[in-house]
Amino acid sequence: MTAPTLATFASSRQGVPAGPAIAAAPHPGAQASRDTIGGSSVSFEQVSVAYRGNVVLKPLDLKIEAGEFLALIGPSGSGKTTALRAVAGFVRPAGGRIRIGEVDVTDLPPYERGLGMAVQNYALFPHMRVEQNVAFGLKAQRVPKSLIAERVNQALRIVGMTQYATRYPRELSGGQQQRVAIARALAVRPRVLLLDEPLSALDAQIRRSMVEELARLHRELPHLTVLYVTHDQSEALTLADRIAIMRDGEVSAHGRTMQLYHRPPNRFAAEFLGRANLLPAVVETPVDATGVAQVRVGSFSVQASSGEVAPGARRLLCVRPQNMTLQRGGSDLNTLTGTLRSVHWQGELTHLALDVEDIPVRVVLTRAIALPQTGSRMDIHFCADDASLIPEEAHA
User: Fold this and answer.
1) Predicted pLDDT at 396
2) Based on CB atoms within 10 Å of each CB, which residue in 39, 263, 322, 387 is the most buried?
């Protein structure tokens, strides 16, 4: 028997009220509150959070559009999980308001917000079997028993846990428990799905499979808004429509995923979202009609994409390692020459570390027929479209 697609979830969602994945007994006004949530966008309006006087989330203004998949990424302690927990209702903001659709939910308890949630530490009820854990939110919504059984079975099949339906959490591995938590979040058909490091406990193969399932979820439930917190940049790049990079309790950069990756606005974004080569550069010419400026890196004159910038300005030339090549494919390519310091072959990828006039430069090759020898001098090439100029300051 084949597993149901997420289209099955979409077709059966109509007419069922949204609700939490983890819920207490519904408040008498819970159903009315859920019915009044007219949309699934999420808005932070100057939201700040402090613990015992220590500010962990500075006034945050951010909107997640209805049906959008937004990834919050950043180092530990950056405030990304605090922001998610504020949406969930588990953290009380010190200031500002949170809206889901047009409704201010800042003062609503978690079970009245119409959310589904899966967290890093599973949060399963140890005394309940797997199928009971997945059904918990549906029972809190008073969904008919016949529909609960159907929903639970579908959710468990999607995460590959049908055969474990009657087991207790203690009888499962950590990865299996997290898959149950994700199934529980999907079962309630939430308007907003909150995911806090949901795949961190899974092994590599299952993790890749779940990334594909989450991507399919986003495609086939276009009205579902997803806020995804992760340390894994590849997950964010694969899944998210937009990414917000957090640092020290505030958003350092945010934007459309591809734009943010290829044109990071500051040094921290360039370094955190995928590793980037950042080479000190001095602008030599104004930006031309095609958005390209001539810049000098050491003794090399190269071209890079840029916004308005004055000659003489100091910038960082940002080039991703995989956008560099050893093959000169055309006269319009930039060229740098350096000394090869190390070679690391990793099957599909070969990582080269070079020294270009005392500037470290990394190159990632997808096809390396013969490995170069360390200590050799070599030319590396890249297109102006694959290079951008960013401010030297981390936050600029």
Assistant:
1) 54
2) 387
Query: What distance, in Å, lies between the first and last C-alpha atoms of the chain?
Result: 54
Task: Give buried/exposed letters for 9-30 (b at 16+ CB in 10 A, else e).
Answer: bbeebeeebbbbbbbeebeeeb
Whether the CB-CB separation of 348 and 368 falls below 8 Å is answered with: no
Using an 8 Å Cβ cutoff, are 37 and 101 in contact? yes
In the three-class reduction of DSSP (H, G, I as helix; E, B as strand; rest coil), residue 272 is classed as helix
pLDDT at 34 over 50: no
The one-letter amino acid code at 182 reads: I
Residue ranges of the alpha helices (H) in the chain? 6-12, 30-36, 80-88, 130-140, 145-158, 174-187, 204-220, 233-239, 257-262, 267-272
pLDDT of 264-277, one tens digit each?
999 999 999 988 99
C-alpha dist (Å) from residue 166 to 125, 181, 341: 13, 15, 56
- Reported residue count of the chain is 396
Q: What is the pTM of this model?
A: 0.82
The rounded distance, in Å, linking the Cα atoms of 270 and 266 is 6
> Per DSSP, what are the bridge partners of residue 356?
359
C-alpha–C-alpha distance, residues 75 and 230, integer Å:
9
Return the closest-CA partner of residue 178 out of 140, 133, 137. Answer: 133
Measured between alpha carbons, how far is 182 from 128 in angstroms, rounded to an integer? Answer: 16
